[in-house]
Amino acid sequence: MLVRDIMSKDLITVSKDESLKKAATLMREYDIGILPVVEGQKLVGVVTDRDIVTRGVCKDGNCSDLSVSEIMSKSTIFASPNQSVDEALKTMSAQQIRRVPVLEQNKLCGMLSLGDISKSKSDVEVSKALCEISKP
Q1: How is domain 3-133 classified at the CATH fold level?
Q2: Which ranges of the chain have pLDDT less than 50?
Q3: Which of 22, 80, 99, 123 has the fewest CB atoms lying closer than 10 Å?
Q4: Is 103:80 a contact under the CB 8 Å cutoff?
Q5: What pLDDT does residue 40 have?
Q6: CA 119 – CA 36 distance, rounded (Å)
Q7: What's the pTM?
Q8: Domain ranges, ordered by start, for the chain
Q9: Distance, CA of 135 to CA of 3 (rounded, Å)
Q10: CB of 95 closer than 8 Å to CB of 79
Q11: Which of 84, 86, 79 is nearest to 103 (CA)?
Q12: What is the pLDDT of residue 121?
């Protein structure tokens, strides 16, 4: 099975110049924990709920003036839609990440999450990956 077969294609994205408040509002509205940060269709990073807390709120308690670019993670880890799900899962386990952007010809085309993978893999395989991802 390929990544393209199970990845999420309906993406909510944010620009790097957007306010942190807007990013948090989108996450709450769509019940998601990660937003790809894009310029056009080009991925320039990701911002997670954890980034907002650890780099925004905990920085000085006042994140109302921060932009996404000030706290985003510059994503270098991604999957390809033509990559096998097994290969993507190995990368996610090794890098200890639960969600990964999917790029085709350097353009964002989807997101792959451990939840997406859990629908196509056995409980044992997903549990093993989660243990690797969650290691301290």
Answers
A1: CBS-domain (3.10.580)
A2: none
A3: 123
A4: yes
A5: 85
A6: 22
A7: 0.82
A8: 3-133
A9: 24
A10: no
A11: 79
A12: 60
